Amino acid sequence: MAEEPKTHINAAIIAGFIGLLWLIAIMVNFFITPPAGAAAGEEVQIIRGERITLAMDEWGFNGKQGGPIIEIPAGKEVEIVIINQGRNFHGFQVKAPDGSKLAGLDKDDTVDPGEELVLKIKIDTPGEYIYVCPVAGHEERGMRGIIRVV
Ligand SMILES: [Cu+2]
């Protein structure tokens, strides 16, 4: 019985810690993301392989703001087939951690509505990157997703 107050203190510390983690998770969710995956509760589609097909429209990839997670092998050339199913012109670019272009199209190279383009890209360094439509304003509207190089 002498142990009991201590146990309560430990339980309070643990509860506080869990609460803190929960708060941090909420803060991260609100302030750091515009989510590059699906919205909370939705299943995130993962596409793996050496030929990836992505449909683009307003404002997302494969019909979702925050497109699917793409997983490609490091150091190997893969094909990204981008199909513009929207009404605006769109593009595809993988960003380096500093925000510069790592692979894909330049900002001004775009695909017209109804058109498709096969891009060959190769990323040597494994990691998690962001892919976007580089047309001004489109990333902010939801044309972004995660690409994992493994
Ligand atoms: Cu776009």
Automatic annotation (TrEMBL):
Residues annotated as domain EfeO-type cupredoxin-like: 68-138
SUPFAM superfamilies tied to this protein: Cupredoxins (SSF49503)
Keyword Transmembrane in record: yes
Leader sequence segment: none
Phylogenetic placement of the source organism: Archaea, Nitrososphaerota, Candidatus Caldarchaeales, Candidatus Caldarchaeaceae, Candidatus Caldarchaeum
Stored Pfam families: Cupredoxin_1
Protein name per UniProt: EfeO-type cupredoxin-like domain-containing protein
TM regions (residue ranges): 12-32
Keyword Metal-binding assigned: yes
Keywords linked to the UniProt accession: Membrane, Metal-binding, Transmembrane, Transmembrane helix
Any one GO molecular-function label of the UniProt entry: metal ion binding
